[in-house]
Amino acid sequence: MPMFTSSYGAVSDAGYSLPRIPIEKVDRKYHRQIVRYDTSEAPGTIIVDTSNKFLYLVQENGKAMRYGIGVGREGFEWRGTARVAMKREWPTWTPPAAMIKRQPELAKHANGMKPGLGNPLGARALYLYNKGGDTGYRLHGTPEWASIGKAMSSGCIRLMNQDIIDLYERTEKGAKVIVL
Question: According to its UniProt record, which residues of this chain constitute the active site (predicted)?
Answer without folding.
Answer: 140, 156
